[in-house]
Specification:
Layout (H helix, E strand, L loop, with lengths): L11 E3 L5 H16 L27 E5 L9 E4 L2 E4 L11 E5 L3 E5 L7 E6 L1
Antiparallel strand pairs: 1-7, 2-5, 3-4, 5-6, 6-7
Length: about 120
């Protein structure tokens, strides 16, 4: 698609995560979005409305959200950069963690269902 910018798949992310399982999940989601592969959950890819206003204001449709659901038994305490998070256990099928992709050019990880957003740099 000429002229359309998309976050390209990579090998790692910054800031650094203490849990490589989550990094692998984030990179896999980005890869699936980039190549147009099927996503795991029906709501993956829906427009994220940024109702809380915690991300930079953009036109509706700029941000899209994706589920980040680590396997059962994955650690629930993680460090991202210099911040530590206690991840809530999944309630329902999707859990609290999300990846937000904005305009195909910026990615954010939310460990706590939109309370915190951490901008990611995808390393190739």
């Amino acid at each position: 698609m000429l002229g359309v910018r998309r976050i390209e798949p990579g090998k790692d992310v910054e800031p650094k995560f203490s849990d490589p399982v989550r990094v692998d999940l984030l990179l896999k989601i980005i890869e699936n979005v980039y190549y147009g592969r099927p996503l795991q959950f029906p709501k993956d890819g829906v427009v994220f409305k940024n109702k809380e206003g915690r991300l930079p204001p953009k036109d509706l449709g700029y941000y899209h959200e994706y589920t980040v659901l680590p396997p059962a038994g994955a650690t629930r305490t993680i460090t991202v950069g210099d911040q530590e998070f206690e991840i809530s256990p999944p309630q329902g099928t999707r859990g609290a963690e999300r990846l937000i992709i904005g305009g195909g050019e910026v990615a954010y990880y939310s460990p706590d269902h939109y309370k915190t957003f951490i901008q990611l740099t995808i390393l190739r």
